[in-house]
Amino acid sequence: MTELAAPRGYYQYPVVKRPVWTWEVPAYFWLGGMAGGAYVTASLAQAFGSEDVRRRGADGFYIAAAALLPCAPLLILDLGRPERFHHMLRIFKPLSPMNLGAWALTAFSPVAVARAAAQAGDDGLLPAPVRMLARLLPKRIVEAGGSLLGLTLAGYTGVLLAATNVPVWAKSKLLGGLFTASAMSSGSAAVTLIASRRRACDDTIHRLAAIESAASLGELALLSGYLAQSGKTAAPLVSERLAGPFWFGAVGMGAILPLLLHRLARPRHGKALRSLSTVAVVCSIMGSLALRWTIFEAGKVSAQDQTASLEFSR
Amino acid sequence: MIDAYKKLMNLEEPPAPRKAKGFFTDTSLCIGCKACEVACKQWNQLPADGYAMTGNSYDNTGALGATTWRHVEFIEQAKANGSRQEQRWLMMSDVCKHCANAACLEACPTGALIRTEFDTVYVQQDVCNGCGFCVPACPFGVIDRAPKDGLFEAGTAHKCTLCYDRLKDDMTPACAKSCPTASIQFGDVAELQQRARSRLGELHARGETTARLYGMPESTEAKEVGHLNAFFLLLDEPAAYNLPEVPRLPRRTMPERYGWSAAVGIGFAVLGALALGRRAR
Fold first, then answer.
1. Which chain A residues have a beta carbon less than 8 Å from that of B264?
2. What is the pTM of this model?
């Protein structure tokens, strides 16, 4: 393609409107993604794992339920008319990622809470009559169905941002994949965190660390692709005010450092393994927040950029 | 049974489709009087936006927004010591385009944004919950959410309604009614398009070779968002008016974007099953 000269615009006025969303949105993306990732990890552990993997992995159901609790309130808080939140559910319109996400959250929340309740029953945390009730839950079906809903919740958020005319969100096609990978890495990291605090076997921690590293590698690959496709459009993210939090927070702390620490921890056992893993997964979880927040904020800058908009729409 | 449900839910039949209505804004006739801005504000009872001076020619409005549904642009194209042909002052009254494929309408998760019987795009104020998704979805930066703490319809999305209330009574929208030079022409879209084509031919014949139409069914702008029910005759390239060359419709690329999400999710599940399930070392 030939490079055309930058088109001239109308004074410095932006072409598109700046998104009106505030901090609740990236916070929700982070928690919802982590909930989905933890639920999928826990379900995989139940379906394929050894006894210790199953037991430790099941803590992921608690994480999913706990991370989901603030999600709906955050989304409602961000609305212009919070008392009308239920209008999201007056129609089913998967064409709108916002509508699809509202339904995914509505469907996933009770499933995740029910599965966590069943786990609490198995762990002896519930009184006898409730425990009997919790036993009735068809776990395998709930795990499989819940995993699909969890993946939907983790996967739609990047597509939602990208389904706009904000150049830095929409230029690359990979934002949905990137957010999914980040969700899987933070979700499996949260499971690893609880496992290494709750005396899992070394082998279990190694296995959980392996899938978290796989997700982090995927995240790095998708991020490279995203930046390559975005080109100059990514400037608000990589070279302006947000460059520090992006490179050090989202990339360094969120993906590269956990990969190195997990690699260091691989030949180790016992306390050294636990300490290294704990640091790695805490970094990964915080890095996931940094990724959502920096990309979200970059969108506000990008929407104000007339040249970026005119380039994006040629 | 269905009738009982409709009665219970207070569901009405949508009105029968009428002829598509729209605006043909001929910028070659605009004198920048801003009567359209004022008439729009008056009829729709939109509050003033303050008295800030932008310093950008006579444009103290800046942009379309929640309480500004017509916006007159003033483009000064002057060359120092240039000949008369090199001095131009372009004026253009911008408005919601009421796209054939409207990004805001597709983004709306509540069904507040609808296609009316006049083929226009309309926000139902009693349905909108102010999620804000339509705001960055619009490729033209038209629709906006009113501030949550404001006095005007706080927290919901707003834009030009093509005076839906006036249309219902067979009246001309306020802006077109007030336009003193017929720069804003209202009518049936099919007929307006005919009129626009002949006006363009007339201008070309007179030597206005830079004149072009923006938003016709056959033009590049229509590639994704379709033709615009409110379309324009421009005297320069679209970018000069801050109009995108090819307005993007997010739906077009959505399957590919979801595809990447799904591929990553499935990949993670497969790798996770392998890592968690392989035999102990």
1. 155, 177, 180-181, 184, 218, 222
2. 0.93
